[in-house]
Design brief:
Blueprint lengths: L3 H37 L5 H38 L2 H7 L4 H42 L13 E3 L2 E9 L4 E10 L5 E12 L8 E12 L14 E12 L20 H7 L9 H16 L4 H10 L7 H26 L5 H25 L4 H32 L1
Antiparallel strand pairs: 1-2, 2-3, 3-4, 4-5, 5-6
Helix pairs in contact: 1-2, 1-4, 2-4, 2-7, 4-6, 4-7, 5-6, 6-8, 6-9, 7-8, 7-9, 8-9
Length: 408
Amino acid sequence: MLSTIDRYILRQIAVPLLSALSIGLLMLLAERLVRLLDITLGKRNSFGVVFELLAYLVPHYLGTAVPAALFLGLLFGFHNLAKNNEIDAFLSAGAGLHRLLKPALLLAVLFSLGSLAIFGWLQPATRYAYRSAIFDIKNIDAFYLAEEGVFMQAGSRTFILDTLDRSSNTFERIFIFDYNGPNGSETFTAERGLLIPLADQPRPVLRLENGRRLGVERWPLLDQAGAPPESQTASFETTDTPLGRISKKLFRPRGDDERELTLPELYAKADTPPSGTTTNAMWAEFHRRVINIMAMLLLPVLAIPFAIGHSRSPRAYRMVAAMALLIAFHEVIEQGAVMAKAGAFSPWFVLWLPTLLLTVFAIWRFYRATNTITGGGMDSLLASAHEQVVSFVKRFMSRTLPTMRGGL
C-alpha cells in the first residue's frame, strides 16, 4: 500500500512526466508524419494508410520518449519539492532522501517492465509491420498511385490520365500503350473509364468507354528489308481488360534484420543468426536492449541529486547538466552498439562499461546528497561552470548590443 508521502510524490512527478511524454511523442511523430504524407498524399485511402503507419511507429518512439519523460518528471517533480522547501520539511520529519526515493523507484520499476514489453516484443513486431506496409505501398498497382497528367507503368502498359476521381474510381481521357515484345503492341485511347475491383480476382478490371484501338502485329525490324508490320484499327463503345499484372513479389519473412527479432529470439538465435545479419550484430542488439531496459531503474538515483542540490545554488544549470548527461549516455550506448555490431569491440567493453561507470556515479551522487550537508565537489564544479557561462554571456552582450545599436 502506498502511504500519503508516496502518493504525494507520485503526483508531483506525474504531471511533468505525462506532459513531457505527450509533447515528446507528438513531436517525434509529427516529424515522421511530414515524410509519410509526402509518400501517400493524394493516393487512394492515403490518410488511413498514414495513421496505420504512425501506429506502427509509436513503440519505436516510445523507446526514446519514455526514459526521457521519466527523467524529466523526476527532475521537475523533485525540483518543485526543493523549491517550495518541502524537501526540508520531509527531512525535519525524519523522512530522508532514501525514503523519498521509494515511490520514484517503484515508478521506475513499472516503467522498466513497460520498456521490457516495448523493446522485447512491440518494437520488433511493429518495425516489421511498418516495413511490410511501406513495401506494399511501393508495390501496389500503379492505378492507385497514379497522378493526373503523369505517365505511369502497370505491368507491360504505360498510361496517362487527364482527370481522376478516386472516390468513384473513374477517370477521363486516358492513353494506354501496351508493349507485347515480338508480338507487337496495342494502343488505346478513351474518353472515360472506370476501375472495377473484383473480390475474387487479384487484378482490377479496367472498363474503357467510347475509345479507339490501334494494334500492330509485330515490332518492326529496322535492320531487315521487307514489308512493315500490318496494323489494325477499331472503335469501341465499351471494353473491359485486366489492369496490371499479378505480382509475385512478397515481402521477406520477419527476422532477416536483428531489430525485427524479439528478445528471446535474439538470445536463442545469437550463435546461429539469420542470413541477413551476423552473430556480432545479434549480441550487440541483445545487450543494447537489456541496457535500455535496466537503465530505467537508474534514473531516480541519478535525477534526485541533480534536482535538489544545495539550497543556495541555482537549479536551472543542474537540470541542464543532468539532461546533457542522459543524452550523452544514450549516444555512447548507440555508438557502442554500432562498434560491437562491426566486431571492433566487445559489448561488455563498449556497452556495459559505460553503464557501470554511470551507475557508480549515480550511486555516489545519491549517497553524498543523502549523507552530507554541503553540495560537494560536483555542485561546486557545476556552479563554477555556470558562473563562467553567465559571465561570458554578459561580456558578449555588453560588447554586441552597443555595436548593433550603432548600426541601427
